[in-house]
Structures are given as C-alpha cells and as structure tokens.
Amino acid sequence: MPKVTVHRKAHFNAAHRLFRKEWSDEKNYAVFGKCSNPNYHGHNYNLTVSLTGEINKETGFVYDLGILRDLIKTEIEDAFDHKNLNIEVTEFKELNPTAENISIVIYDKLRQHLPIDLDLKITLYETARNFVSYSGE
Ligand code: NI
C-alpha cells in the first residue's frame, strides 16, 4: 500500500527566555544571544504536524484533518498560545524552551493521542528562517 503524508499547520505566540540559571547574564548572552534577555521576549511560532501512513480504504483519508486540528488546538495551542513558556508551561520549568525542546514536547503531547501505525513529524518555525523538525528518534 502506498504511504501518504498529510500535514496540518498551526500557530501560537509565546514568550520565552533561554538561559542557564547557574551562568552569569554575560555568559547567557554569549551563548543564547537576544533570546537570553532576562525580561523575556516573544516569538510567533509556526507549527506543521505531519502524519504518514496508509490510506484508510473506507474513508480515503490517512487521518481526519479535522480531528488533528482539534487535537492541536487542545494539546498545543490552548497550552502554549500567549503564554510565558518558562513560567506557565510545566514542561519548561527545568527545560530550556529552545525550538528543539519545544518540538520534542509537542511531539510527546500529540503522539499519545494518535494511532500507533501513523508516523508523526513535528516541524516548528521560531522565525521565518530558523526551524527545527523532530520525528521521535
Ligand atoms: Ni527567543
């Protein structure tokens, strides 16, 4: 059976600060640049959730994109949108909210709700030019 990938785009705005508390502000700035600003700053995150699998013979779908839309809203947008990731999102209390780590948290939150026979890939844009992807490996 051919495998097809379906994609759903989503978006959230969130604030963060990248830092290690045991480092000085100078060292944090040297490593994390503007993203280490002690007063936080925001990004407009663009997310693409991709599911790869065989087409269901009855529906013609790999997965119902309306269900995926609702899942992304409940699990990701409601949890992250207009939040300070460091302060308000439990997963980042001790984890630097880099695009890399955010993509893994998103993957883990969605994976448990999706059929095991579908491959999941997260693509997360922190800026128009900087983006990461994670497929669970
Ligand atoms: Ni930043």
How would you describe this protein?
It is a single chain. This protein is elongated. The protein has helices at 25-32, 65-80, 85-88, 99-111; strands at residues 3-16, 41-54, 83-84, 119-125, 131-134. Helix content is 30%, strand content 30%. It has four helices and five strands; from the N terminus they run βαβαβααββ. The chain has 137 residues and is α+β, with helices and mostly antiparallel strands. Nickel (II) ion (NI) binds at residues 16, 35, 41, 43.
Proportion in helices: 25-40%
Distance between the termini: 24 Å
Architecture (CATH level 2) name: 2-Layer Sandwich
Within CATH, the superfamily carries the name 6-pyruvoyl tetrahydropterin synthase/QueD
Poorly predicted residue ranges: none
Number of helices: 4
The 3D shape can be described as: elongated
Give the rounded overall mean pLDDT.
97
The total of beta strands comes to 5
Q: What is the C-level CATH assignment?
A: Alpha Beta
Strand content: 25-35%
